[in-house]
Amino acid sequence: MYYLHGGAGVPNFGDELIVRQWLDFLADKVKGPIILPRMRKNPVTVSGMRGKVLKKLFAKQYPNVNYSGALCGYQSKLPKGYWSSFQAGFTFFDDGKKLKGAEEKRILVAQVFHLHGGGYINTLWPNHAFYIGFVAALKRKTGCRIIGTGLGLAPAPVPPEEIRDAFAEALIAFDAIEVRDKASFDFVHSTSNGIANVTLGLDDIFLSPPKIKAGPKSFHMSLHSNKGTDEIVTQLDLDFVDSFERKIFWQCHYRDVARYNELKEKIPNLECLDVMSLTHDPLPIGPDDFMVTSRFHPHMQSSRSGISGQYIAPWEYSENKHSSVLALGSQFSRFPQMNNEPSLKTKELDPTRVQQKQTYWDTEIGKFL
Questions:
Q1: 33-38, long-range: CB within 8 Å, 24+ apart, which pairs?
Q2: Judging by beta carbons within 10 Å of its beta carbon (0-12, 13-18, 19+), is residue 277 exposed, middle or buried?
Q3: Helices 161-173 and 182-191, interaxial angle, to 10°?
Q4: CB 3.0 to 4.6 Å from 219: which of 184, 203, 244, 317, for a disulfide?
Q5: Non-local CB neighbours of 61 within 8 Å, separated by 6+ positions
Q6: Where are the alpha helices (DSSP H) in 305-343?
Q7: Which residues are 115's β-sheet partners?
Q8: Are strands 2-5 and 112-115 parallel, antiparallel or unpaired?
Q9: Chain-wide mean pLDDT for the chain?
Q10: Per-residue pLDDT averaged across 57-65, rounded?
Q11: What is the chain's alpha carbon radius of gyration, rounded to the nearest angstrom?
């Protein structure tokens, strides 16, 4: 059993695309008696926020995968708190706790427990620290290989004295942890006393190159429905927008529909792509397109495709994520500044980064199966 767990199942475009890419990669890459080509005998479980949402998103392409929300359901009922949730995971089996249904049986036979990428374990969602403690407890119980890839762990708290040794032990228990930003690397390195096998790597979106299909020259928008993006709506240059043949809104989260409805009053022919389409279909990006986004993964996929654009960071957490895309070569300017320079460096380096990402899996997981 290969157990893949993370923050997907909301649905939210970036998290769902990461799962889709891991399923595609595992189906084509993994061989042997435990995990079979095309996953014919249910050797993989995808675990996330809601099992029903995961199944709706992926079961058509991968009907023989198990989809579960049991772990998330358990931690969501814990008293809110980063360190209390970590401790609940770290002592899960010692305390005789149980998960609903058959999920615990699947977990206990897992050869690999993989925390896939995303920024879902931090102080913004403190109960998710449960997962760090839980995988360490699982390794103590079964000896399975535990791995993290593309994790964003910031903003992160300072461990209190009474929990410091247990947290360090949990991080050191990971056979390998790849994080996607320096703040996360520094957090793991320092709290594990420099012992954890942590690598400063890439977001899991780099597991595969962007799948794109150019169409008419297009103006793309992907915006949160909150006050942090209001200025884009009020200051949007409609003459510039009208210079594009096609106008597309990326509805990355169900809450974004309110922003789409507002923008459609200004841009009557504004199309909307939902999470299902964004996750499974080629992105309609061409070389002369332009993107305005407050969201991280649309910024990432657009810049990897080599186009120009603008970003806005609605809050500090978002600022850190957009900054990491700029560090990879994105030429996007901060709204309302305008920069039409395409992100050619990001596009040029993308094949090397995809190879780096896949090689990390080969080295830290694949050779042990």
A1: 34/1, 34/2, 34/111, 34/369, 35/2, 35/369, 38/64
A2: middle
A3: 110
A4: 244
A5: 20, 23, 280
A6: 316-327
A7: 5, 148
A8: parallel
A9: 93
A10: 92
A11: 21
